[in-house]
Amino acid sequence: MIDDSKPIFQQIAERIEGDILDGVLPEEGQVPSTNEFAAFYRINPATAAKGVNLLVDEGLLYKRRGIGMFVSPGARETVLAKRRNQFYRQYVQPLQREALKLGIGPEELTTLIQRSAAEHEGTPAP
Fold this sequence. Notes:
The chain is mainly α.
């Protein structure tokens, strides 16, 4: 699951964020230890700790002394807002720029998105 496209610690942080979004790690739920991440991914524990600490710095995780790391209250909504913003910057803005180059206006772009959604769902497109 680890790839070379970005730093390993960042991939660990994104994996935890994904588990928070999916409900695998509920708010107030305990997060696997850095040693568990290190053993699972066969990485240095310091690298795993860097990924976990990134989320602590963002307020998504907190430490209970002597027990471990836990998901902060409100973490799911925070991750959801962060990922939606990333989605907007990474996909929507470039899509809009390309649509403008092709002379596709907002209404036609909306129709194309609806058509794609309908095809994905297996229903007839509008």
